[in-house]
Amino acid sequence: MNYLKSICFALLMTALFIAPAFAHDGPEGAEWVMADWIFITFAVFAGGALLAFVAALKLGLLSNLEDAKYHILTIDEPDYYSNEA
């Protein structure tokens, strides 16, 4: 059991005192390039979704949603689930 304490202590000291390892020697601020692209992509898609929502709202596509579900009940189609053959 003593070796387990030693291993845990070594892992703890390694986690506390090790310097962060950088995968490349890039220029200053290069680690933010991916975060910038992620934010720009989010802004483009969120902005497009907001524009589509506002357009649908202005065109009246989101008004009276309760009556839209009753249209499905008026469609006459054959009963595929019963055994009337």
Helical segment tally?
Answer: 3
* Computed CA radius of gyration, to the nearest angstrom: 30 Å
List segments where confidence is low: pLDDT < 50 over at least 5 consecutive residues: none
| Inertia-based shape | elongated
Q: Share of helix among residues?
A: 40-55%
Distance between the termini: 74 Å
Task: Count the beta strands.
Answer: 0
Mean pLDDT: 81
Q: What kind of sheet is the major sheet?
A: none
- Provide the structure class: mainly alpha
Question: What are the defining features of this structure?
Answer:
single chain; mainly alpha; 3 helices; 85 residues
List the helices and strands and how they pair.
Blueprint: H1 2-17, H2 33-58, H3 65-68
What do these coordinates show?
The chain is an all-alpha fold and 85 residues long. The protein is 54% helix and 0% strand. The N and C termini lie far apart (74 Å). The model has no long low-confidence stretch (mean pLDDT 81).
In short:
With 85 residues, this protein is mainly alpha-helical. It is built from three helices and no strands. It starts with a helix and ends in a 17-residue tail after the last helix.
